[in-house]
Amino acid sequence: MKRNVLSTVGLLFFTVVSTAQVSVSSTVSKEAVQQEFAMPAASPKVTTKQQFSTSSIELEYSRPSVKGRKIFGDMVAFEKPWRTGANAATKITFGEEVFFGDQVVKAGTYALYTIPNKGSWIIMLNTNHKSSGLNDIKPENDVAKIEVKATHLDELVETFTIELNDITSTSATLNIMWEHTKVSVPIKAENKERILTHLEKALNGKNPPYRDAAFYFEEIGHDLPRAIEFADKVLEENPKAFWMYSLKARIYKKMGDKKQALKSAETAAELTKGTGYEEEYSKKVEEYK
Questions:
Q1: E-assigned strands of the chain?
Q2: Model's pTM, two decimal places?
Q3: Would you give the DSSP letter of residue 39?
Q4: HSE of 122, CA atoms in CB hemisphere, 13 A
């Protein structure tokens, strides 16, 4: 009889504990679902990070939409400072010193704000990137102030957009677009000496970056005979690297050696036969001819 009572009590205890665990688990699951749910934002926030030069440029801003309204010259007044987006101030972070337009800006995070006008905009960078708008943005804290032309766009840009485009190893374009307006700011990085210093040091290390050095030297037209040497080092390790023969063709062309340029291009084309690159590289041979 005692055994039956103990068994019954144990069974009841196990059932209660199991039920409680299921209940707690269910509650936690519901809370997690509730925390993940978010109503659609009127001006959704976006953060983008673009690799640029030897570091990156990051943008953080909110994106309002036109929604049938008249924007510039109405909702966004001409000749008055605008936070350039919605909600908090727009932020831009440079990973290295750059030229913003024609003005030097050190690495760091800044508030980007503007003064729109019909024919041109004034674009400014300010050290107070923690601003919630423009109330505490002081002009004396501006680190850059440039004027750029405003371009009319035939196609409507419904949602406010800031993008980085036209990217090279030393330059990029910051585009601000909304409604039928676009303004652009050139950004440049003077990174040649920094990159060359890095490469020279690495070339004397354990794993010399011959490929990177060959491509970079060709790109900037620096010490082209050494660029050929670096390309040959890569080909010693991988004789089928057709892209390196294609690079050698470009280097020889810059050196004015048309015969060697064509020969390298033909070798690259031969190595691509039977691959998806065959047509592309055979056309390159014709260009060198």
A1: 45-52, 55-62, 90-94, 98-100, 103-105, 108-116, 120-126, 142-165, 171-188
A2: 0.79
A3: P
A4: 12
